[in-house]
Amino acid sequence: MLIRKLSDTRASDRNIVTDGWESARLLLKDEGMGFSFHITTMYAGKELHMHYKNHLEAVFVLQGEGTIEDLGTGEIHELKPGTLYALNAHDKHIVRPKTDIVTVCAFNPPVTGREVHDETGAYPADDSVVVLAS
Amino acid sequence: MLIRKLSDTRASDRNIVTDGWESARLLLKDEGMGFSFHITTMYAGKELHMHYKNHLEAVFVLQGEGTIEDLGTGEIHELKPGTLYALNAHDKHIVRPKTDIVTVCAFNPPVTGREVHDETGAYPADDSVVVLAS
Fold first, then answer.
1. At A27, which CATH number?
2. Which domain holds residue B12?
3. How far is CA A59 from CA B13, B52, B59, B91, in A?
4. How confident is the model at residue B113 (pLDDT cuts 50, 70, 90)?
5. Test mutation, A1, A3, A52, chain B, max B CBs within 10 A
């Protein structure tokens, strides 16, 4: 059994802070759960373009409000506490937080943690896991 | 992209209520995410004996307090908002909620939904997914 505290994770190198969002990675690939599990905050006023080409992701909103645009269909959905979106088809999307949005996220396959460090600068040519511009 | 609202799920047959806990299954096996994703409340004062022989589970506490006992090691851990426990070794355990504990849970492999209906009465002989007594 593994026990993780969000406060400990936020104080560790498993807490990633970028210009548009921050993410505390409670479980990564190394834990062997078959998914990774993150508490992620997307910042108010940002426009987050995301496309997880190699991962499926579920995102459950705990706090905050905004919208998500599905670039495949053009649909825009409201995000608020209690809403979950699942990127079951590697959906290209844009999240526009009106306020900071705090979420619980699960990824399959699990994120290794390495992708994130790449995001803070240039992306390796072979890193198609996370493509994010804010 | 799938959009799910907790309130809709709670009003549907994906919301399971038992004597010891209730669970809104936002994502089940059918969604094809490779994990299932639940909002589960464990009731105050119960003693929940659990053993997921065929699944790995991560549980993140949103609200409430209690303890979890790891029957493999004898250790007892506090549960409160911001604590995650991960059953990475099919750990036999007991959760004792002092108050109602609201959690986000992810299972790998995903729960089908069928196991739960079995829980409300007798367990099929071949159903070792969820063994719960409160």
1. 2.60.120.10
2. 6-108
3. 22, 24, 15, 26
4. confident
5. A1
Q: Of A117-126, B43-52, B89-98, give the lowest mean pLDDT range.
A: A117-126
Amino acid at A17: V
A2 to chain B, closest Cα gap in Å: 5
Model-level pTM greater than 0.90? no
What residues of A are in contact with residue B56 (Cβ under 8 Å)?
32-34
pLDDT at res. A54 = 87
Q: What 3-state class would DSSP assign to A6?
A: helix
In a domain, B134, yes or no: no
Q: Is B17 on the interface with A (CB under 8 A)?
A: no
Residues of chain A whose pLDDT is less than 50?
Answer: 117-118, 120-134
Tokens encoding B47: 């003693």
DSSP A72: T
In order of A92, A96, A100, A112, B75, the CA distances from A46 in angstroms are 17, 6, 9, 25, 44
Q: What is the DSSP secondary structure assignment for residue A24, as one 8-state letter?
A: E
How many C-beta neighbours within 10 Å does residue A32 have?
Answer: 14
Residue A18 lies inside a defined structural domain of this protein: yes
Would you say residue A82 lies in a domain? Answer: yes
Please state whether B9 falls in left (phi above 0), alpha (psi between -120 and 50) or beta: alpha
Whether residue B73 lies inside any domain: the answer is yes
| Residue B15 structure tokens | 């919301």
Q: How many domains does chain B have?
A: 1
Taking the C-alpha atoms of residue A4 and residue A34, their distance in angstroms, rounded to an integer, is: 17
Residue B93 predicted with pLDDT over 60: yes
